[in-house]
Amino acid sequence: MYKNLSIILLITFFLNNCGYTPMYSKNIDKKYNIEFVNFEGDREINNSIKYYLKRYINKNDELKFFISTNSKYTKYSETKNLAGDTITFSLVATATFEVSYGKNKKIFTFEESSTINNLENQLDETVYETNIKKNFAAIFSDKLILQLIKIK
To answer: Taking burial as the number of CB atoms within 10 A of a residue's CB, which of 24, 25, 53, 120 is the most buried?
Structure first.
């Protein structure tokens, strides 16, 4: 018991004193000079990406990022019952970001997928699908910000 406790305390002590800080948490408050050039693809995902990236915009930064986005969203039947009715759907979203800064250009591609059950009420299914699209967009924008942190 005391051996486990002492090991945990030693690990905590060394991690706190070695200068370890998580990359994402120390850069969460940073702002970037981001300009949106072009958005193509799924409108809901693109609008959500734009919404989530706006909280990182600072026009006074010296390095300016020009971002073009192309998103793709597909929904297809994954499993069906004997009558041919769909039981589960697979939702796949892909976002490709073309980031230009200075004389450099980088392309980042992210993909997320989810599986949902077919709901009785079509309205509930549509609302649920819209929420999943917004979650995908939040994940894509967070991944893009992590890449911008690495660039800067």
So the answer is: 53
Number of other residues whose CB lies within 10 A of the CB of residue 34: 22
β-pairing verdict for 104-117 and 86-101: antiparallel
DSSP 8-state code for residue 151: H
pLDDT tens for 8-55 read 876 776 666 556 566 555 555 567 778 888 999 999 999 999 999 888
CA-wise closest residue to 133 among 72, 56, 68, 69: 72
Q: Which two tokens stand for residue 137?
A: 């967009």
Tokens of 58: 């600072």
Q: How many residues does the chain have?
A: 152
Concatenate the DSSP letters of all residues of the chain into one string: -HHHHHHHHHHHHHHHHTT---HHHHTTT--BEEEEEEEEE-HHHHHHHHHHHGGGB-TT-SSEEEEEEEEEEEEEEEEE-TTS-EEEEEEEEEEEEEEEETTEEEEEEEEEEEEEEPPSSHHHHHHHHHHHHHHHHHHHHHHHHHHHHHH-
Instruction: Name the amino acid, one letter, at 21.
Output: T
pTM over 0.85: no
